[in-house]
Amino acid sequence: MADFSFKVSPNILLGSYAASRIGSSVLSYGTKFMVIVDPILRENGTAEKITKALDDKKIDYFIFDEFSKGGDSETLGRCLKLAREAHVHGIIAMGGGKPISVARGVCALYNEIHDLYDFLDGATPKTSPLPLICIPTTIRDAFVFTDSIPLVDARSSTLKLLKAQAGIAKLVLFDPTLTATLTENQLDSMSLETLCIATESYLSQRENFFSDMIAEKSIELFSFALDGSQTLTVTTPKEELLSQAGCMASLSAATSSIGIASLLAMCINARYKISRSLVATILFPYMVEECAKFKADRIAYLAKKMNIAQPEQSDEEAARAFAENIRQRIAKANLPARLKDLSISLEQLALAAEDAGQLDIVNNLPRSMNSDDLFGLIKTAF
Questions:
Q1: Smallest Cα–Cα separation from 54: which of 82, 28, 84, 21?
Q2: Whole-number Å distance between alpha carbons of 76 and 117
Q3: Residue 113 contacts by C-beta under 8 Å, 6 or more apart in sequence?
Q4: What is the per-residue pLDDT across 49-65, written as a single tens digit (0 to 9) for each?
Q5: Domains, in order of start, for the chain
Q6: Is the whole model's pTM more than 0.90, yes or no?
Q7: Distance of CA 274 to CAs 178, 270, 277, Å?
């Protein structure tokens, strides 16, 4: 067994209306901040929970919400320029993966003198990062606790993983009330995507006793949130269970790794701006079936933990039941079941598979896979 090394870096605050209490927390890191926020959160008034808390503490801030091109390197460059010109003390990020990834990039590169693209091409930041406070408004961010930042390279529309210093995030705040901004369809797809992340971390070659423990608990919480408890002992509201499960899935992925479905979903999203959650959800049961060829016992354990399979069923039967259960959830939520339903061609998907095969994450998959293997899975799901 390889040595296990784990360093707790960010403080984690999880609770209803936690976002309203952020003012006191950020004062530990300064009085002048850049707030990077998903534009839809300004439109629906959710961002006001943050700005009011900052106003109440007389904290100076300005807001960036210009994500017309998504979370790509050009957007990061604009944010970086604004932050440097304003001489901010830290960054507050609120939203999904795009604003949080851009904010992490700003913090990582704020004190660097080299060009942004040097770091996208593999250079490692050497200076101290700016402090970051993250407020995820979705339940699935597999990188928030890692030292890798997923960004789209605007030069090629491909996914890159920017290397970052350890400990950028000083506080990660999960507020279950913020998921109320999601539509039912979005929440369904994001829930399945996050369940996929927890499952992938459990099946990864990098899994360990700690990531297993966190992944198992995350999956159990998802089971309670999606299906309810078989007893009356769990009375926690669904949105809180999903936030708890999402937090633990992120921790599990950070100490293990994401897998096939998440990797391909990110690369497809980078090239074609198709919903990452939808792609990952579609690929989820096919990923389970692929892994069942050599990790049926681990999938069976999860299936029985979620009461999808019976204790007397064989590992192979339980693994098949797990995949079929995911398909039933997709159908019940009226989500696309095939990649062809997303109006994308196999030729386009082949390019995304090549992109995925170039990333280091491919070394963490449940078995050795190259671009051809990844494309084979895509064809099965097409």
A1: 21
A2: 11
A3: none
A4: 888 889 888 999 999 99
A5: 11-178 (3.40.50.1970), 183-381 (1.20.1090.10)
A6: yes
A7: 23, 8, 9
